[in-house]
């Protein structure tokens, strides 16, 4: 009831400020009781408007009567349009512009009612630029025209420089001037205002013609349906003169699509607690729009939410209040900063004066300091001469110590260089031994492959001997096999030659590694002598003695006598097995 009271107060305020209450206050109160269906209280009315010295018909005197005897008794069972029209009648004649407008008086009345809905909750009533933009956008969309944002931004800048918003009459002049509806005729503008009025004021969420199936005769009749937040009313025609019934909506209702039947298409069903209504739309698009609109309304009823346009208005107001609070907080902070800045300026002035006094004291102290400095200079001159003599002696001693230290450091650097070269020689020797080991492994692999090839050649030779002793009937076939084996033998001989070449290369690499090893050993020996010459700081670790190398008919071998005997036994065993 608080929101209803605020809406009523806005319309009453217009009528209240337009009348001379000394003569017409009783008339206004009587009319309000009539249109709001509030019981008349003649005694209270006469008591309030009696003639006395205090003038009880002042603004402060009338509002207590209005709240106590009229508004607190309003139950909501009244015609809002009739109430607004009564207030409009009392205030329009005095305030409406005399200049010709592009809208009719009826359209001006609807704009006035919309103004009361969108205006701020403070008096005198004004509508802020954000709500003006919202209303003009709604009217432009209803006309099917494009919104000119740049034009409105320019108008908004001009408006903000002079005032916070527009009064109801200035808003009517703005819309009636056609500034934002250029190119549109009066009828189009009137239809657009009526559509916005139905949505915002009459809470019409959707309306249009559809067919409805009767409950008794089961016949289909065309009706004009009007969807509101808690009901769907249907009339004979869109002039709303003859109402045929209502479909009361609540959270238990639901709507669903039906398949085509009885020659009717685009059917849907509205199920309520006591009745079910079958309705046929003109096309599939209208059917889907109505189903979605009704379902949205039912969902809002279930959630206890207000209609979308009222909820959007509340959110816009809350956003403006939030921005206003932030702006006030920012202004408060700016004032605090300004006050703090003034305090800082005062503090800086005090500090400046203190600095000037300190500078004067410092000048006096500087004068005394200079006098004392002259006296000290004479005394320090003698001490300086004595210090020069002492420093000269100390410099001579330091020079001598520096020369000795340089010689010592030079000797240390020579030893470090010799140690580094010795390390490099040891690394070369270590690398040479690793290369020798690699060559030995390669030589062993080549010998093993050579042994395998020789065993395979012996095997093939024995097979040839056995083939010669076979019968004459198998001679031709064996001859062919012999030829194939001879070819394989040639291939094996070639591989053997290749292994021989690889063995020679391995021997050459071995000789080269051996030379490197000898060179490294000589270097190690020479460095050992040098180190021993320099006071024996480092003792070389010599490699151990080497066993004498075995010599084969192909050169030095990398095997011991035991390894060679083991390989000889293995070769003989393979040869005996092949025979």
Automatic annotation (TrEMBL):
Any one GO molecular-function label of the UniProt entry: DNA binding
Limits of the PH domain: 203-299
Coiled-coil ranges from the UniProt annotation: 309-530
Entry keyword set: Cell membrane, Cell projection, Coiled coil, Cytoplasm, DNA-binding, Membrane, Nucleus, Phosphoprotein
Localization (cell): Cell membrane; Cell projection, Lamellipodium; Cytoplasm; Nucleus
SMART domains assigned: PH
GO CC terms of this entry: cytoplasm; lamellipodium; nucleus; plasma membrane
UniProt-listed Pfam families: EF-hand_SWAP70_N, PH
Free-text function comment from the UniProt entry: Phosphatidylinositol 3,4,5-trisphosphate-dependent guanine nucleotide exchange factor (GEF) which, independently of RAS, transduces signals from tyrosine kinase receptors to RAC. It also mediates signaling of membrane ruffling. Regulates the actin cytoskeleton as an effector or adapter protein in response to agonist stimulated phosphatidylinositol (3,4)-bisphosphate production and cell protrusion.
SUBUNIT field: The SWAP complex consists of NPM1, NCL, PARP1 and SWAP70.
Stored PANTHER family: SWAP-70 RECOMBINASE (PTHR14383), SWITCH-ASSOCIATED PROTEIN 70 (PTHR14383:SF6)
Protein name: Switch-associated protein 70
Organism (species): Erythrocercus mccallii
Lineage, top ranks: Eukaryota, Metazoa, Chordata, Craniata, Vertebrata
